[in-house]
Amino acid sequence: MGPDGLTDKTRELDGGPSGRAEVEWVRELVASTINAHLEKAALEIRVDHRSLAAQADAALVRGDLAAAAILSREPTQHVGKNGTALARRGQPSERSDANRRIEETNEETFQKLIAVFEQEGHAMPVPDGHSQAQAEREVGRPSDVLSLPLRRGAGHIEVSRSMATIARGLGLMEAEEATPSRAARSVAELAEEASDEWGVAVQADPRLAQTLQATLALMQWVRERVTAFAEAAQLRPDLNELLRRLRRFKAAAMKFARRLLAVRRAEKLHHMAENAWHDFLANNPEPGTSWTQGDWKQRRGRRLSTLEARAAELGDARARVISEEQTLCEKEASASAAHLEVWSRDMLQRYPLQLDMAAKPDEQRPSPAISAPPAPAHVPKPPRFH
Length: 386
Fold this sequence. Notes:
3% strand, 63% helix, mainly alpha, Plasmid mobilization protein, two-stranded antiparallel ribbon, 2 strands
């Protein structure tokens, strides 16, 4: 509205090709302005207005596979002011819980990608949860190479076939091309992998694993059952389903322990940031001869922002190990354990051995001894001395 009446119509930014283009232009302008101020403040962090998929595509084009793998994570959902207010009061919300599950899934996927990048040609100790036999089987598998074409005239890059899922998600290859062309694993290898997964799950929660009598009996003689019923057509699908349920039980059993480890990592990082902040204040309470006022403010601001970020991370990590969260993790582990136990009973009936038939119904089957390691406890932060 102007002095002469109605003027140009307001542009719509909530729909249509022109609206999307305007919104994208505004986002790019805001991001470039923020990055200019960050660069002026001598801060190394940057913001990017593009979607994760677009950033991963650009990283893969320039050959940065690590960045492409990290950026291929699933994005979280916008919580909104109502969900944020509920989270501040300690009350659950659907979107906050969904984001928490997405973050945990992204963390597990990231750890798998790190293992993919490091598995070829690197002498590393066997990590926790893996056996030497399993490591030898992983090394023995063929490491095929994928050739991914870039834009017209830009050539191509070669990546490991383990990156096929990411490449397919970025639209660089068809689903048929992303399917590994290696031979299917034998039922004996599936049984060995199931035994490895069960061993890790037992170490994660030996008390809960001891209650799974059917699973204990099944896994004790799993190799003998596979040998006896190797020609059964349904054996391979049943073993695959057993593996799926074992992995789910293992992940649920290790969930809270991983959160405790995340708290310890956050405490260490916060302690380092706090030391850096106090050391700076003690040694440089005000600008000296070597620094100008601007340089001193920049250095002080960097340490303060790092300390605030570490404090926020520590608070979030501690919020995920409260008693209510531990109860939820235990319920999830119990549910996955019951799910696994049902399938183990079915497999015991479907693939019986003479050992099962000779045992009396009320006789306790011999099971491997499970030693219960001490439950992980929250270690308080040691006091600092000035």
